[in-house]
## 1
Amino acid sequence: MISSEALLCPKRWLKGVPNALTLCNSLCGFWAILNTLDAYNRDPVDSSTAAIFAVSAWLILSAMIFDALDGFAARLLNAISMHGVQMDSLADMVTFGVAPATVMAILTHKLRGTMTGSQEFITYMLCAVYLGGAALRLATYNVHAIQKKSGDVFSGLPSPGAAAAVCSVVLFAEGAKIHLDNIAGWLPVYAAVLGVLMVSPVPYMHFGKWLVNLRRHPRQIWLLLVLILVVAVFRGYGVLVLITLYVLSGPVMWLFRLLTGRDLRLLEGGD
């Protein structure tokens, strides 16, 4: 005779699917960090060095698939829990916080050649601003998840969006055959700006909710198809333009609200 505990076993396994996907997210980030460290074993003028950073960027972008799927799986399997929320934020801190900061710091240090002590300090401090912004954003997300606050848009740039912005620049340079040392000097500055945006009150569209509402808004399906077509045709160029437009959309929305006086419902925190 089969016990009731045995019958519940498959459900218990299914409940673990979201956590498994979250682990895949963090493993992609860990792999990206290890892969980036390999740049120290390569010649800066060797083309394989640029390829190392491109692979790290792809690993971080790939983690976003798992980051999206774990939330979807949790809702589908009715496995949403505070344990999962905390675990998701920890994984995001590794993949969208530590990994991009590591890519930027090592890319700049390796490809700019010999730097003075002050140059190294400034570079690492700029990367630290990005890392600190990601940590503060994810901590705020956890607090508001406990308080069950929600809305239509994020307050501040989501950490996956910030990581995607960094990765898109690296992939664009690699695809366009632009030597990465040409962007190494200003990439940490861009990262620091992204770090500030993550903790700012600037509103950003909640892309996940936008996708969920596709069936109720047919026009959005056409827009999504256009976005996919742009990426398919223009590849690195398309990805860079679309992500940059998303980063800029926040300040534009903020200025619009400031000038018109119209308020927007915000999702404080956000990942």
## 2
Amino acid sequence: MRKYIRHPSDIPLVCEPDEGQASQDTLSNISLGGLSFKTSHSISLGSRIVVKIPLIEPNFSAHGKVVWCESIENGFDIGVELSDQNEAFQARMIEQICHIEHYKREIEEKEGRVLSGEEAAREWIRRHAADFPQIDQLEHSD
């Protein structure tokens, strides 16, 4: 059984490593313990980074450590463990916001309806919240 729900892969992310320059990347998934993203360059294991999700107001920002870096077609998939439990819980909220933002874009593209953030949240919650694991399920699942 998957421990964390996969999430939309079209959410922009900014990575600011302690070593090197900031880059505009794409979030792959986010969970209670960390996140992963796709980038054009490798980042050394153990590197400290700051990740930001500019789509969210106010912008989400968290400190983490690179725990894996896998070569993929056209770049790398980077896994980040978040440094602080509060940031991990914030990431859980951001995960839901990313799902809602993705839903909002999808509805506009497929149905031509432009939803406010609140309208999109209400519809997404009504349609999908039951499928979204609760924190206690995440903490106790393998």
